[in-house]
Amino acid sequence: MSRLPVPARIAMGPAVAALVGLAMAGCDSGAIGADVPQSSGQSFVGHSYESTFYKVGQRPTAPAVSGTTLTGQRLNLDAYKGKTVVLNFWGSWCDPCRSEAPALGQLARQLQPDGVRFVGVDIRDEPDAALAFMQNFNVSYPSLNDPNDQIALEFQSTVPPAAIPTTLIIDRSGRIAARIVGASSYSELKDLVAEVAGLKA
Amino acid sequence: MTTAKDDAMTQAPAGEEFRVAGPDLAPPGDSAGSGADGSRASGSRDGRPRESRPRAARLGLVGWLRWFWRQLTSMRTALILLFLLALASVPGSVLPQEGIDPAAVTQYYQQHPSLAPIFNDLSLFNVFSAPWFAAIYLLLFASLAGCVLPRTFRLVGSARQKPPRAPSNLSRLPASASYTTSLTPEAALDSAAGLFGGRRFRLHRGDGWVSAEKGYLREVGNLLFHIALLALLFSVGLGGIWGYKADRLLIVGQGFANTPTALDVFHPGRLVSPSDLQPFSVNLLSFRAEYVTSGPQVDQPITYDAALSYRAQIGGPVKHYVLQVNHPLVVDSVSVYLIGHGYAPVFKVTDGTGKVRWDGPVPFIPVQQTTLTSEGVVKVPDAQPYQLGFAGVFLPSAVDEHGQLQSAFPGPLNPRVSLVAFKGNLGMNSGQPQSVYSLDTKGLKQLPVAPRPLAAGQTEKLPDGAGSITYLGYQQWVSLAITYDPGQLPALISGFAALAGLILSFLIRRRRVFVRAVAGPDGSTQVSLGGLARSDAAGGFDTEFAELSRLLRTEHDGESMRASQIGDGTVDGPADFDDLERPQPTDPAAADVAATPANADTATAESAAAANPETLTGLEGE
Fold this sequence. Notes:
The complex is a heterodimer. Chain A is built from five helices and nine strands.
């Protein structure tokens, strides 16, 4: 990468982490983003390494996001009120997204009769590549095009997508009930969705 | 000059015994013994040979802890730690650091395959988060805190105390003067008190004497310096806990938001969660780089301008900024620096079925700084019937040199792309993250395409009905460093405060002036003055004393002035003015050092007594 002369930036901050008594154990914390492969140039994680379930009453309200889908339609998340929504942040360039795509496509079709709707948010992608991805993995649900991360940003104050892929499960009242960071597996996602939607396993 | 003081620091406060014993108990010959060797003089081990305490021979656990604490809080240790901190930062500027330039670290690994893992184990690629760095930092912090707190209490205590009584024989002080006046002793002392009080000396008046003292700001400055140093360390720490650093590569025409999924590299502080990130968005409107076109500086960059539009929050007003090197965009206390740039050739890839599978810029990474020859890959994992991959070289100013194509200039005078095409399995569907800047050729087959440099608009047709790739032109990209450091302003303020404290402590000196007035046999009054200053590095006490005595004499209309300024009016070295400096020498051996200032002829127990309020009680015997 071409480097321009930069003012010396003092970067001793982490040293002070020791103040809170953590540093002596080595400095790779489990903090989100810390174990993102650094040289990859993109922030994604290889596997699901964090899944969180929020109890009823502790669920943050999902922002009312809207936008244009990859196929050019307007889509408003509000229109899904009353349904359980699986919101998947992905990109065609992201390897873990590719590995979880078949499971998501399958679950989307399988849970359709139960009132579960899947919506994708395509991040940092080239539209032709994204459409090719959807065609290739037989993804039938719509994806919002989010080239400038505005939809991801709207979730920032609630349950932010911490890496790509991130999957949020939004309950029928429009509250975020669960989050999976990293590639979700068929069974993991199915169990979580069933719990949120109140389906029998 | 510091060794004796350090020793003084490491010694146990034993003021109570000392006050009773008085300084004359200390044999003069012993003063050398408590000199340089810190461990010797330290604590209760053998620093007090004349005290036959049973525990003097052995140190218990508590004794060792006390000893350790005194060592840690000594000025010598603090200085060593400060030096170590500076030394430990050196690898951070010599070796590439992961937090600042991960690509350079990767490069270092390739260039030094045997050395790099060792360096990595020693945290040399992450110096400022290394455990050993934290250890130095914490020890320095503890050392400073352990020094500053007791001193602050002592300053407050001594600021409440009155100046000591005047010694009986003022002529034995480093600076002295005497004369006779026709005023009564009371009146003489009254006017002396008035003179000193008017000059903001602190006064203590007794029967036949006045003591005046000035210069507490020196210690205040000294403390300010230490506290500011602590604050500086603490501020830097703030950044590590609540600050974060991130990098993002941004192509002209594209935008991003300050959210973890949009950042290429994200180093959050310990207590930073993704929802803490300031919700700004940035769009890169254009980028312009200018280079020197001739002369010895040819190929050197002149200016970089990145025109941005940004919003501080979702739905906030759109603002504009021209980003330049060292002129970061500051939004919501977050700084966005321009740290790099490069080219992103634009490709259009059509697969074997005739469908467009990629149509956009792909950032290439410069491999040669001077000419910006750049390399990159294009991955088309959803092409049919085969996945396609391309490894390319971008030459901004292509020239043919001896049959080999090279870039002659970093500017885009003759941009060309040369590609090698692959088909097969890119290895992207396994879920194993791979770099977007490299091609895993394990499952790929290179296509027999004669390499030729493509100009904008030229298409390379792929064999086996795999499709085609068209080079459409280029875009430029910038790499941005996003840093949020809440400790920055406090660190700046602390820096200035430390400087102010240092200046104060250098310019101001503690000094005492004493006046005694006694009625002579002939009805006149004999007035004697004495004064001393502590570590009069800046000089000037002699002048001040002379001025004071002249003024007083004039006021008293005194006669037969005798000014005997023996020495320079300064008590040097370990003779702490009082207990304000680091822990005072309170055991007899150290007090003996105090009684041996530069001028041996004037240095009596009395001058030492004047220097130390505690000893005064024993001497005066009042």
